[in-house]
């Protein structure tokens, strides 16, 4: 049942508890006396966690938690919450605009299903995704799902046949109920894929017999129908791609390496982010890029060529999280399992909208 939670004041007992703390490092030293978070938000995140959150407007935030879906039109002064357990636990999940796609393992292959109502109900793609030759050649698992416009879904897959590996790329049109294999490469291990618009896209892959840490770049300019070899990068660990436009992209990894390309991935130059290692990157425009670091937030205003570490904190708490979403170049959110921060001015200042304060989560 849908419930609407209204703003209430913090209990006087909670304030008295804060005021009663004595000695160095009291709660008053750590947290402001005035509550930063609506206490009712405790209902949202108590024994719960955020799965996917979007800043849909200047005031509106919506998302999915492990236990239900929520929306707020006034930054959690009040919010709607509909209880419903998250069902995408096993397998690979991708979130798009008004579309969630889930590929759980199913024997030697996988199944594909999707939701258009934030995971409340699911429809199964009933037609075969893989062609008969790939089904017969060995087990296939999904490495990554990408959701694009017009309900198109890209599936970067890995095929296993004994010790042999093959990278596969399929595209599923949910509207037309059709599937097409766009690329296949023997002895290749798919790592990451991304697209800019409907035509330009990139694949990162490793050759099965090459040294660990060597990554190859493939590029398409016709929506995945044909691919050309790009650069080769050495010494990278678990890399990811973030395209800014059809020719500009960043590749970053868990070891702290960042590479910039202005020619569509034909060549790359290393980029330094002093004191930071990117865990997540978000290009808001061709010039403005934000990056979540192991601790803090970085920003580029020249398309990823140079970066500055933002003084990103609110009420003495460092901004941190596992994901982010931006409504425009200046307004965005950073969130983790049980916390959510918001900026209205491009990261210069931040507000705490959800945080597991002791006097909120009971």
TrEMBL record:
<dbReference type="InterPro" id="IPR015943">
    <property type="entry name" value="WD40/YVTN_repeat-like_dom_sf"/>
</dbReference>
<protein>
    <recommendedName>
        <fullName>BNR repeat-like domain-containing protein</fullName>
    </recommendedName>
</protein>
């Amino acid at each position: 049942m849908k419930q609407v939670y209204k703003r209430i004041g913090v209990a006087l007992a909670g304030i008295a508890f804060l005021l009663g703390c004595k000695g160095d490092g009291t709660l008053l030293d750590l947290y402001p006396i005035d509550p930063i978070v609506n206490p009712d938000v405790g209902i949202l995140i108590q024994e719960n966690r955020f799965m996917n959150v979007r800043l849909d407007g200047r005031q509106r935030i919506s998302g999915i938690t492990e236990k239900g879906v929520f929306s707020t039109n006034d930054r959690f002064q009040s919010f709607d919450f509909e209880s419903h357990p998250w069902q995408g636990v096993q397998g690979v999940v991708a979130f798009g605009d008004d579309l969630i796609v889930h590929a759980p393992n199913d024997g030697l292959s996988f199944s594909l299903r999707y939701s258009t109502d934030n995971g409340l109900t699911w429809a199964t793609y009933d037609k075969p995704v893989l062609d008969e030759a790939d089904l017969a050649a060995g087990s296939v698992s999904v490495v990554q799902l990408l959701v694009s416009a017009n309900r198109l879904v890209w599936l970067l897959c890995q095929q296993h046949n004994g010790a042999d590996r093959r990278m596969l790329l399929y595209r599923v049109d949910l509207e037309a109920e059709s599937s097409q294999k766009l690329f296949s490469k023997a002895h290749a291990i798919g790592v990451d894929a991304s697209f800019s618009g409907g035509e330009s896209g990139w694949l990162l892959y490793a050759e099965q017999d090459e040294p660990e840490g060597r990554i190859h770049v493939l590029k398409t300019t016709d929506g995945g129908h044909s691919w050309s070899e790009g650069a080769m990068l050495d010494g990278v660990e678990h890399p990811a791609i973030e395209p800014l436009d059809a020719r500009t992209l960043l590749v970053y990894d868990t070891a702290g390496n960042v590479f910039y390309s202005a020619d569509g991935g034909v060549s790359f130059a290393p980029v330094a982010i002093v004191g930071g290692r990117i865990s997540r990157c978000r290009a808001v425009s061709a010039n403005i890029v934000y990056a979540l670091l192991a601790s803090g937030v970085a920003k580029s205003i020249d398309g990823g060529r140079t970066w500055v570490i933002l003084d990103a904190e609110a009420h003495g708490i460092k901004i941190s999280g596992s994901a982010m979403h931006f409504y425009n170049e200046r307004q965005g959110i950073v969130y983790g399992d049980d916390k959510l921060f918001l900026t209205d001015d491009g990261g210069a200042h931040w507000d705490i909208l959800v945080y597991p304060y002791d006097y909120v989560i009971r």
